[in-house]
Amino acid sequence: MDAMVHTMSRPADQDPRWSAIVARDKAADGSFFYSVRSTGVYCRPSCAARLANPKNVAYHLTPAAAEAAGFRPCKRCRPNEAPREQREAAMVAEVCRRIEAAETPPQLEDLARAAGLSPFHFHRVFKAVTGVTPRAYAAAHRAERVREALPRAGSVTEALYDAGFNASSRFYEAAGPMLGMTPKAWRAGGVGAEIRFAVGQCSLGAILVAQSDKGVCAILLGDDPDALVRDLQDRFPKARLVGADAAYEQWVAQVIGLVEQPQVGLDLPLDVRGTAFQQRVWSALRQIPVGETASYQAIAEKIGAPRAVRAVAQACAANSLAVAIPCHRVVRQDGDLSGYRWGVERKRALLEREAAA
What is this structure's pTM? Predict the structure, then answer.
């Protein structure tokens, strides 16, 4: 009975569900399935197979109903299984665990073979789900292993082998971008690293600007200056924090000028530290023009990871360079301001100021 709904009521192409099939609408997946009498198969509405003649189409509420009517599942869209996005997410999650468990980063071909895909297809799916390539994911995981191993290892050499590096030269080549300082300094909790900082006042409240030997490494906003200093201390508890001198005040003045007049820009080097994915997100944020906004979805699509919307939001929340990396310009799809690390009211004030500018 379910299989012949259209013959009992109206032609298939006059049913509202037909337009979803023509549009291959993913939003309709799960709400119904359709079968094609000439092929003997049933599909999801979003199936990319050749469009059927509506005279041969029938609609079903469930895969079981379609199969009870004598139809078999399409091998292309696999309507009797979980949606493709869920299958791919589960596959990628399993691959991630494989990468994390490996002593050395696995080869792309080996990962693809284990996933049952070609290297090209696997690479594309992995990047779409995670936002980074398998190689970048492996590098980020090794970086995390290095950070965890250095404080407890007997030596830097021991830590590098624990993290999966098979040669010290390759480790030291990667150490700077991974840690932002020498492995020895990181292992000692930042001992030997010098961070200059100053706290000032701007129209948004207290502002802390910190600089490493590579550039501005933190711009923090808040109501309590002491809380901002404690935040900086927590990042590198054993680093040498140096209070501002007259020359450094000029850097602080430039940052405050960016807050007050965003159209001026910031001509200072930045020391941007984060995972490969975070850095891609932050780079995309810096391309949003003053006075404009972008949705989390738009940023995810811009970096080639359309399904990584939640990860984009997490990268925005992890940004420690307020205004310089303008995460305040990212809003929800409906235009709502959503959250902001330094308070939604500051986000609203920044956007209003930029719109006026």
Answer: 0.55
